[in-house]
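step: validate -> pass
step: tokenize input -> pass
step: predict -> running
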Amino acid sequence: MIRARSVRRRLARLTASRTPRSAWTVGFTAGPRATAAMLAAAVLAAGVAGVLGGVVAAVLALGYALLALRAVRRAVRERVATADRSAALDVIGGLAADLRAGVAPSAAVEAARTALATDRPDPAVRLSLDRLTAACAVSERLGAPLADLLDRVESDLRSIERAREAIAAQTTGARASTALLALLPVAGVGLGYAMGAQPGHALLHTPSGAACALGALLLQYCGLSWTGRLCRTAVDRAS
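step: predict -> pass
step: emit ->
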């Protein structure tokens, strides 16, 4: 009984340990209040840019601020998903160890399922829960030791996670190159000023310059979105 209580407390701590990380990170960048505050800051920046440089400057400032907000939110979601996947693997491994220690299977399995069940789980977390359910079904039908099945499930899931991390590391270069290319227009404007030209006036206060600036913003958005989608697809296929 003491052992079973300690197992439930450990699983509860494991579940709770994911919540503060997610809540702290998402609350800072992706929660409703934080998102509203960042949107307000983007609108304020656009307003200041509009006062100083005109309508085109306001649109550019708002567009780049929204791009930055989008990138931050995506990075936060990826960080939270990584923490959730790691916690799910710990739950599977801990359950196998607890079953070998003599904990009642029904109570331990139910606690593990509770730990893995979330409102919006990562697909890998759902896979962990599905594998746990399948292992329990095989154990009940064939009489195979559930702890041994869970060891194989954990090993398979960890190999999937390692493949996912390897692909994510390989796509880092593509993401960095895309970000560098997105910053090149700023360097071009700076070079124009260094050469004694006035690119700001041409871009913000002439029809052709405004078309070039807004077109560049649109192309940058499309390029970043396309590259991000390709990288995410490659990582997801690894899992």
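step: describe -> Residues 55-100 form the longest helix (46 residues).
step: cleanup -> pass
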